[in-house]
Design goal:
This is Polysaccharide biosynthesis domain-containing protein. This protein is mainly alpha-helical and 167 residues long. The chain has seven helices and four strands. It has one domain: yst0336 like domain (yst0336 like fold). A hairpin with a 2-residue loop joins β1 and β2. The longest helix has 22 residues.
Length: 167
Amino acid sequence: MAQIGNITADQLMAGTSVLSRPAEEFENDPSLEAMWAIKAMEHAEVYFNILCSVDPKLLKLTPHDEQIYKTFKDTFPSMKVNKVDEDELKSPEGKIKWRFFCEQFKDIVEDYSFGTLLRADCTGDYSEQNSILTTRIQFYAIELTRNREGFNDGVREKYKSNRTVKK
């Protein structure tokens, strides 16, 4: 049977429904952390495979892309999205600004606060050195900007021959 650490695949599958419950209900549980990590990795892999297959300017990530993009550009007009500085993103000032941004989408974007992996440098693939844990709405805001402004254009050419979309 497939297993990650001390957690079997059956346990992971049974626990995925738990992830939709409010975070306040949980303590630091290693099995939940493992499930979150797996979901974040799966999301990252699917997204990167799509980037390697489709012109990023054509991607629609949510039904609210226009609102997310506009709000992001209004809130963070000078943020460099091609190479995200994790220290800047998670600084005390950055956290305050991002918290306000994120909460605007609480009742608009499904799973807006889910832990999601973001590539720090948009020219690279996901790796331990090139991944930042963010909220889903931060991921959407930054990736929408990268897609619309051409920062993700080179990904398809650079990685398409090395990637295969899982079926």
